[in-house]
Amino acid sequence: MKLNNRIGTLLDGNAVKDYIASMNCRGGTKKNNLLAYRLYSSWKGFEFKLPRISDTEAEIPYIPLESELNSFISAASKSLAPILGIAKESGARIGEILRLEWKDIDPLQNTINFRAEKGSLNRQCKVSPNLVSMIMAHPRKNNRIFQSKSGSIRNRFQLLRSRLSVKLQNDRLLKIHLHSFRHWYACSIYFKYKDILLTQNKLGHKSLRSTLRYARLVNWEQSDEFVCKATQNQDEAMKLIESGFEFVTVINSVSLFRKRK
After folding, report:
1. SS3 category, 198
2. Domain extent for 238
3. Does some domain include residue 206?
4. Tens digit of each residue's pLDDT (9 = 90 or more) over 195-248
5. 178 in the same domain as 86
6. Is 55 contained in some domain?
7. Could you give the number of structural domains in the chain?
8. Do 185 and 230 reside in the same domain of the chain?
9. What's CA 222's distance to the chain center, in Å?
10. 86, 106, 115, 198: most buried by Cβ count inside 10 Å?
11. In what order do the strands lie in the sheet with 254-260?
């Protein structure tokens, strides 16, 4: 229906080709659209020859700061905050998050099982106890944790983004989308471990090619400022590591940790 409104008809194959060629997306997405149109043409009884589409490089994604993602989570409603928290701590797509059921959450192990979409792989992700508590406090209506549709979540996020950018006087926030949480997660995992195969596994990518682009982005938009913590207590040290702090060194029996802002 949207394509019909844009070009005026779905019966003109050349017009459809020209419109899809002008779309600002990767070649794979264009090819999928053309394959769908070929099925439509077969249903309507006319021939449509699939043109050659080169799988061009996707645009470089915008990588926000962790503090900016945290500002979204802090300002979000009780129903939206756990969705954003899961996106940040697991790198899951919004569709994967909205398909979550209560059985997918293990509050004892602090893990979430994701059923993949877009040809990715199923995977399990470790998250923080605070996030698990936030999820478990969500109202239970049926087997699914979240009842909203993806379009509704995107609209609510856009409203939050507009309001927050004005409140914090930060125009950078307007560049952030729901998928930016996944981009940030991918870069943070690679930056922390420098292991591209581990990053591929964490994201559920079937193709390493999809993961490799993040290796070029790990230092983009990263803050050079750190939050530093010091402790002599083993339990406190473990909590710092669980919350994302990196061990630096020991000075006079005091362990020092840091985490990027």
Report:
1. helix
2. 226-260
3. yes
4. 888 889 999 988 887 788 777 665 544 555 678 889 989 899 888 887 778 788
5. yes
6. no
7. 3
8. no
9. 17
10. 86
11. 226-231, 254-260, 246-251
